[in-house]
Amino acid sequence: MDDLDAAESIVTDPSDTDIAFLAARELVADYRRKTLSPVEVTKALLRRLDRLEPALNAFVLVARESALDQARAAEARWAKGEPLGLLDGVPVTIKDLFLTKGWPTLRGSRLVRRDQDWNEDAPPVARLREHGAVLLGKTTMPDFGWKAVGDSPLTGVTRNPWSLAHTPGGSSAGAAAALAAGIAPLALGTDGGGSIRIPCAFCGLPGLKPSFGRVPHYPPSAFGLVAHSGPMARDVGDLALMLTVITGADDRDVYALPPERRDWTEGLEEGVKGLRIAFSPTLGYARVDGEIAAATAAAAQRFAELGATVETVDRLFDDPARAWLTLWWSGAAKAMSAFSAGERQRADPGLEAAAQQGARLSAIDYVTADIERNALALAMAKFHRRYDLLLTPSVAVPALKAGELLSDPATQKEWIEWSPFSYPFNLTRQPAVSVPCGLTKAGLPIGLQIVGRMYDDALVLRAARAFERAAPFPRCPLE
Q1: Out of 195, 211, 280, 419, which one is annotated catalytic?
Q2: Is 62 exposed, middle or buried (0-12, 13-18, 19+ CB in 10 A)?
Q3: Does the residue 4 lie in any domain?
């Protein structure tokens, strides 16, 4: 829905379901007109959460009372015509990886002590509070975010609202499940190897991994320069709105980009006419499910119909899996080094195995992987001298069955083998978005990835919006 359409729509005596699937921009417009109130919306979403959460298992913490307190304060500000910011009264969920004042941040793990002084907000959480967002609670994730599916020893199995037998993906698992189910219009996620884009692809949502440093992050991730923070939503306009909020300056992140006082919603409707776009169905090394291959090829053709020049390109670079795994395993080793051998027995066995792999690596291995990361970034910089954007599938397979790690255990050793399109662009630090582009015959969402040159987040969002307008996607049928 266009911002203008959202501003002109009026919801009369809405049901909980009507409210559940309103965009953040629509909620703000309704608050301004006083056709909805933040308290009414928050209560409706909490009722929906109570009804759906036992099946979804998307939350590790629900902050019912504080959310209602924040909603009442927002309602009072709107009554005086003095909203605090761009998201005043809009409910948002927070991934359990972000420090949040007054709430334990357990990182999806049984190893983190609850009895700590939780007295600080991570940078994007602080920005959300400054803009008046209503924080509903913390969403589930796998143990320290080590894998791209949605289960952990701490919270059990999180499920996909499109099919409860399947995973929502991860590591921003509960964030995607709650969004798709209509429990909140916005979610804060992280992406170190696809952890925003994979669950958004599996759950039929748009999700942005911004350019590295665009969204300040603190404390620094053990996974280093591959780890990004970013917005998740149900439409691209809300992605851009949330990005506008969470890119605010914060000097705690020494890698943060210079702050830009810009509205990321501006220019969204300018389309893709005249752009030079490459479509790579496999990147030259990936094995892709047939239904996903067909859907993403059709999506690439849609860009040509919208006026872009689209060329199919096979191999862009050799598979950088080893470099990414070296950095990822090293991060796992660092994260687990804080715990004793006895404590580590309570962790996800896969995380412990990854940490042991990392502990066996040398400094030379790490530096070599970082040099390979730099070489890949340079290769993509040269690629973008010719092409404005790159299109690929977001994930090579549909959502896995809940509780499973590999889509084909007979041939796969690592989960990244079924998600070969995401981690390369964590290594390069480029902006990349996943947008829904179809459903499998079994009714599972399919994602298209749009990758832009470094720092050109605006063009990535613009292209995602152009595709979203040309190929509207249905909302999740879970009621």
Answers
A1: 195
A2: middle
A3: no
Catalytic residue among 171, 172, 229, 422: 171
Helices (H), 104-208: 123-130, 173-180, 197-203
Range of the domain at 91: 9-470
Name the residue type at position 360.
Answer: R
In a domain, 163, yes or no: yes
- Under 8 Å between Cβ of 151 and 177: no
What's the rounded Cα separation, in Å, for the pair 272 and 300? 12
Q: Is 392 inside any structural domain? A: yes
109 has catalytic annotation? no
User: Is 54 within a domain?
Assistant: yes
What's 221's domain CATH number?
Answer: 3.90.1300.10
Q: Is 103 exposed, middle or buried (0-12, 13-18, 19+ CB in 10 A)?
A: buried
Report how far residue 275's alpha carbon sits from residue 306's, in angstroms, rounded to the nearest whole number. Answer: 10
pLDDT tens for each residue of 83-139? 999 999 999 999 999 999 999 999 999 999 999 999 999 999 999 999 999 999 999
Asked if 460 and 389 count as a contact pair (C-beta separation under 8 A), the reply is yes
Query: Using one digit for the tens of pLDDT, what is the confidence trace for 354-389?
Result: 999 999 999 999 999 999 999 999 999 999 999 999
Number of structural domains (the chain) is 1
User: Which residues 6+ apart lie within 8 Å of 120 measured at CB?
Assistant: 99, 101
Please confirm, yes or no, whether 195 is among the known catalytic residues.
yes
Helices and strands in the chain, H and E counts: 16, 13
Q: Catalytic: 95?
A: yes
Q: Determine which one of 37, 95, 211, 422 is catalytic.
A: 95
